[in-house]
Design goal:
InterPro entries: LysR_HTH_N (IPR000847), LysR_subst-bd (IPR005119), WH-like_DNA-bd_sf (IPR036388), WH_DNA-bd_sf (IPR036390). The protein is of the alpha/beta class and 303 residues long. It contains ten helices and eleven strands.
Length: 303
């Protein structure tokens, strides 16, 4: 019977995800020669070629991809087994490490912690790490966090066998105007009404993409007058009359300024979608399941 070595299979999966032996070695805290040796041994154990040369790099063979398709089911079952064992040993009061983007920490994670603490039974110990999507999913893959919160646009696809995804909410995008703006009190305000205004958003990254996409859907390209990524800075610039900005409601709830008028865009209804992700199979663990349930309940307040 063919011998399946889980440790070596994880190395092969990391090579698929990282692309090179060097990057795989760095991710797993191994030497490149050790990575190569482990994969050579795995190929001998399975009786198939797993790698083939492609210039100075290597690529996975069709056989390697076939092996990984089945290995993902093994990894998911091991996650379920570990979750059940943890639940058996600790009950539901285990530790859940959460990686979340900046606005999700005060808007979602902190209320979840408060909700769990208010329950009559002991709750999981939630450990928080602020991280944007790329880093959050690297941490999740590496087993350094148990749950990742990100925007759906930057999450893996639902077909990715490594993760289970849970849609949480559609966060409305409101427009922030200076208090003295001519349209601050205008009825039925639409994004297109602000096409001639100067806009404030980051020079790159998710928020730049979201702002640009929302405005283009409304029929115009926003003129970027100022570049800022943090909501404190963006709203300070708006309050000073230096431009207008789209602001997610999750952020505007935490950032209040007297000189800024927040207007709901009922006609356009721009949204950004937030999801939670865990390693496939880990959602059956009692502690992770309780955190997911609390996240779902907290997310309802944004409907």
């Amino acid at each position: 019977m063919t011998e399946w070595d889980v440790k070596k299979l994880r190395i092969l999966r990391t090579l698929r995800d990282r692309g090179t032996v060097t990057a795989t070695a760095e991710a797993l805290l191994m030497t490149p020669s050790a990575v190569s040796q482990q994969l050579t041994n795995l190929a001998k154990q399975l009786g198939v070629d797993l790698l083939e040369a492609q210039g100075r790099r290597v690529r996975l063979t069709d056989a390697a991809h076939l092996v990984l398709r089945h290995a993902e089911a093994v990894f998911a079952q091991l996650e379920r087994a570990e979750a059940e064992l943890t639940g058996y040993l600790r009950g539901e009061a285990g530790e859940v490490r959460v990686a979340a983007f900046s606005t999700a920490v005060p808007a979602l994670v902190v209320p979840v912690v408060r909700l769990l603490r208010a329950e009559d039974r002991p709750g999981p110990d939630v450990r928080v790490r602020e991280a944007e999507a790329a880093q959050a999913y690297e941490l999740l893959t590496a087993g350094e966090v148990d749950l990742a919160l990100s925007l759906a646009a930057h999450a893996p696809t639902a077909r990715d066998p490594r993760f289970s995804l849970f849609p949480l909410l559609a966060d409305p995008l409101d427009v922030a105007l200076p208090a003295g703006h001519a349209l601050a009190d205008a009825p039925g305000l639409r994004l297109a009404d602000l096409a001639a205004d100067r806009w404030i958003f980051g020079g790159s990254g998710p928020w730049s993409e979201i702002t640009t996409a929302a405005c283009e859907a409304a029929g115009f390209v926003p003129e970027q007058a100022h570049s800022a990524a943090g909501w404190t800075a963006i709203l300070a610039l708006v309050e000073a009359g230096m431009g207008v900005a789209l602001v997610p409601r999750m952020a505007s709830r935490e950032q209040r300024r007297e000189g800024v008028v927040m207007r709901v865009l009922e006609a356009d209804r721009p949204r950004r979608h937030v999801v939670a992700a865990v390693r496939h199979g880990a959602e059956s663990g009692p502690a992770v399941a309780r955190v997911l349930a609390a996240l779902t309940e907290t997310a309802r307040s944004f409907s």
